[in-house]
């Protein structure tokens, strides 16, 4: 995640999904931003929806109004604006920037695991998604990926996980099936549920004790988001 993206339309969908998943039960959420430096590019400028409430507010009126209030024209976008608002229920935040260097990444991972203690759901928000062979830890650009070891350690600590993932250059259906299967194999999860927006994939890896609450959330709380957030496969119901 980069601060420059904060509050764009993809963020609106992302926070909408998190709010839906948190709509049942009293589980605690950790948002691991996986921050990397802004790159000065044009990405993150898709905020016109904030000025069109008649088209966009009905998906989640409270969230839309909250983001409008946080992002007047004079304010530079940054994720820290969201943290004190309560727009993400029962949420804590891990905001340390992700380093490329191996030693720094090890320290970052240890602090992440400490922050995740006692959490029910951890949202991992890397720039790109799950690690790829061409960007091993220590190589430039590796900070844009969450590692399999980080995923597995959080799972072993008892956390359900929600992963942000860019689609890769292969058919979306095939990619989703392959990555979901690998997540199940590496964690032993009985449920990996996919969600798709127009640009990205989210994968929920659910601990067994959390499945009933996620079931209700997916069936009911995501209903207003039809057309913006697609539940892949057969929703758990």
Blueprint of the fold:
Layout: H1 9-21, E1 29-32, H2 53-56, H3 61-70, E2 91-94, H4 102-115, E3 121-124, E4 129-130, E5 145-146, H5 148-156, E6 160-166, H6 172-187, E7 191-196, E8 200-206, H7 211-221, E9 230-231
Parallel strand pairs: 1-2, 1-3, 3-6, 4-5
Antiparallel strand pairs: 6-8, 7-8, 7-9
3D structure, described in words:
The protein has 237 residues and is α/β, with parallel strands linked by helices. The protein has a single domain, classed as Rossmann fold (3-Layer(aba) Sandwich). It is built from seven helices and nine strands, in the order αβααβαβββαβαββαβ. The chain has a seven-stranded mixed sheet with strand order 2-1-3-6-8-7-9, sandwiched between helices. β7 (191-196) and β8 form a beta hairpin. The longest helix is centred in the C-terminal third of the chain and has 16 residues, at 172-187. The protein is globular and about 45 Å long. The mean pLDDT is 92.
Give a short overview.
By secondary structure, the protein is of the alpha/beta class.
């Amino acid at each position: 995640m980069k601060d420059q993206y904060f509050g764009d339309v993809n963020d609106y969908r992302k926070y909408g999904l998190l709010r839906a998943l948190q709509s049942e039960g009293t589980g605690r959420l950790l948002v691991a931003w996986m921050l990397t430096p802004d790159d000065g590019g044009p990405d993150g400028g898709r905020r016109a929806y904030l000025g069109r409430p008649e088209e966009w507010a009905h998906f989640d009126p409270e969230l839309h109004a909250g983001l409008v209030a946080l992002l007047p024209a004079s304010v530079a976008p940054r994720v820290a604006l969201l943290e004190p608002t309560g727009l993400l229920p029962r949420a804590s935040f891990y905001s340390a920037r992700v380093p490329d260097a191996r030693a720094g990444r090890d320290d970052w991972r240890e602090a992440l695991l400490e922050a995740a203690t006692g959490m029910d759901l951890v949202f991992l928000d890397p720039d790109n998604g799950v690690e790829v062979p061409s960007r091993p830890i220590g190589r430039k650009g590796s900070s844009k990926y969450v590692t399999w070891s980080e995923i597995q350690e959080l799972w072993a600590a008892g956390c359900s996980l929600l992963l942000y993932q860019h689609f890769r250059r292969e058919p979306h259906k095939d990619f989703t099936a392959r990555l979901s299967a690998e997540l199940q194999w590496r964690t032993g999860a009985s449920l990996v549920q996919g969600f798709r927006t127009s640009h990205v994939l989210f994968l929920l890896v659910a601990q067994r004790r959390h499945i009933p609450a996620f079931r209700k959330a997916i069936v009911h709380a995501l209903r207003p988001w039809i057309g913006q957030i697609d539940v892949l496969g057969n929703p758990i119901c």
